[in-house]
Amino acid sequence: xxxxxxxxxxxxxxxxxxxxxxxxxxxxxxxxxxxxxxxxxxxxxxxxxxxxxxxxxxxxxxxxxxxxxxxxxxxxxxxxxxxxxxxxxxxxxxxxxxxxxxxxxxxxxxxxxxxxxxxxxxxxxxxxxxxxxxxxxxxxxxxxxxxxxxxxxxxxxxxxxxxxxxxxxxxxxxxxxxxxxxxxxxxxxxxxxxxxxxxxxxx
Length: 203
Hints:
This protein is an alpha+beta fold. The chain folds into two domains: 2-77, Glutaredoxin, CATH 3.40.30.10; 87-202, Glutathione S-transferase Yfyf (Class Pi), Chain A, domain 2, CATH 1.20.1050. Helices cover 49% and strands 9% of the residues. Strands 2-1-3-4 form a four-stranded mixed sheet, covered by helices on one side. It is globular, with a radius of gyration of 16 Å. The chain starts with a strand and ends in a 16-residue tail after the last helix. The mean pLDDT is 96.
C-alpha cells in the first residue's frame, strides 16, 4: 500500500492528500511530528536527506517533495487526467509547479507560517510577496477556469493549498475575484478534502 509520511498542518502534505483522494487511491498516513523533529531522525533522513515533509513510498519507490509527488501520482495513476497532453501544456504545468515551490512558498506559505507558528521573519515582506502571487494568479485566471488547459491539473492542486491558506497569514485570497472563483471550483471537485482553515471561506 502507498504510504504518505504526513504532517497534519503542512500545506505541502495536503496537496498530496488531495490528489490521492481525487484519484481514489487508498494509502496509509504515517504521521510525522515536525515540532518533535521527527523529520530530522536518521530513519527519516534516509528517505529524504532534506528533512522535509512529505515523502511518498509506493512499492519500494521513495519520492520526496510535494510537487514531484503530484507529478508521479498523476503519471502513474491519473489515467490521462491531471496532466494535460502536449509539450506546451506539460511545460506550463511545470511553470506552475515551480511557482508553487518558490514564489508561493516564500510568499503565501511563509506569511502563514510566520503567524501560525510564530516564526521569526519579515511578515510585511512575506505578505507583499503573497499579494504579488495572488495578483499573478488572478490575472492568469481571467477568462480561464484552470491554470493549464480546460480541465483541472496538478498545477491547480500545487497552487491551490497555500493560496487558500494564506488568510492565516493576514492576506485574504477571497478579495481576488478570479482566485476566489478558482478556489471554489477546486473545492467543488468530486473527492475534494479540506483541512484546518481550508476552505478559506469556512473560517
